[in-house]
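User: What would this chain look like folded?
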Amino acid sequence: MAQNAAMIEAGNQELRDDIQWLVDRRVIGYVSTSTWPIPVSALEEALATRKKKDLTRADVHAILAVRRYLDDQRHSNYGITAQVNTDSLPQLGFVNQSRAAATGGVYLQGGGDRFAGKLKVNGLLDPLTTKQSKVSLEGSYASARFLGQAVYVGQLAHYWGPGIDGSLNWGNAGTAIPGIGLQRAKQTAPSSDWLSWIGPWGYDIFLGQLQHDKTVPDARVVNMRLFVQPIRGLELGASRFIEWGGKGRSNSWSSFWNAIKGDSNDVAPGTDPSNELSGFDVRYTFLVAGNPLTVYGQLTGEDEAGGLPSHYLAQAGMQFKQLAGSTRLQWYAEATDTTARRVFGIGQGMVGAAYSHSTYKDGLYHDGMPIGHPIGGSGRMLSAGVTVIPDDFRNFSRYSFRVMQAQVNPGNQTINQVFPEQARWYGAEVSYSWRIRPATFRAGLAVLRRTAGNLDNGFSLKFSVDIPLGQIH
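Assistant: Here's the prediction, encoded as structure tokens.
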């Protein structure tokens, strides 16, 4: 068995692709790829119920890729990481990218069935924003399993939603938020006959504190997510991100309770207890001639009305997975609108409302980078791409290509340091990843070109490597 108490943070695109392939083709049991971090125990449980017969060579390849990842977590080890992003382009997508021209890290990790942990120290050269620290502990955590639950403390990247290139509610484009979280250790269905109709399910509850916020220092976050699979292939999720308290604000239990209840509109300006996003997402996969076709969407309310989210931001997308011989092809197309109350042109929209707040003036940004979708509030983005995964059982190589078109920050909000001024742009990215066990590598080229507004054109060479140096006995 692997380190069952360990956690898998957001950012490993290859692992996410492999898990989705296996879940969507119904090769393994259920584990959500819309809620990160994932307990290793949940992934192990899904693999334990995998099909044993009628597997394609591509299915076996995906199973072995996931198994090798878990096997690498089995032993306590230490190692180094390095990332290069020559033009410091912003992170756009799930994959973990350097948020500086160069990033280096050293780590020590270990654990077992009940306890696990990782200590990682990172150094950043020429960070993307002025609020970022040049030294961080991102990727560090301690975790434990007890009574069927998984608790973790540290600074792990989260990602809540089915989107490929971003989450409206909570993504990994910004610096990870330090705090404590609680999840189910296994995402299985209830054993009770009365509740079995719910299907496999899980949750994530997180309490944390933002760093480097100048307008309301030490602001806290209280985040909650629930997800279920009531029928095979259909995943429903509900998420809530609450920014609350901090220096100069009420940090009392009554203020906390008002934030949880959503009593934030019927108060005088400046006395509202919280700033929050709440919403819903759906991901549905069905088979077309044995090939998984997935449609998904996410709606996130920037405001509240009658106890429910309102003034929605929207995301919709489609994935199609197919075989070309024994090579996997994974296609996708995605549209995102982060302008409140617009939903792809259905409403007039409220420019400047999304991810901003009258009291928490730094908005829902962490170190100047969006907590939600990578483009920030009041924008829109279209993207499409394909990942090619050959049956390479030696180096597990894969190739990815995508194109993007976006409008960003029409209100010129300075809280968005990634895109501080209004602009329209298009971009493209090509990448190649491979393994020379135990090391993993990823190399790519990304281009951003302005078509209107104020944005420096970007041409960035990207490279990342994770090299375990040895085991601790």
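The chain has four helices and 25 strands. If you want, I can go into more detail on any region.
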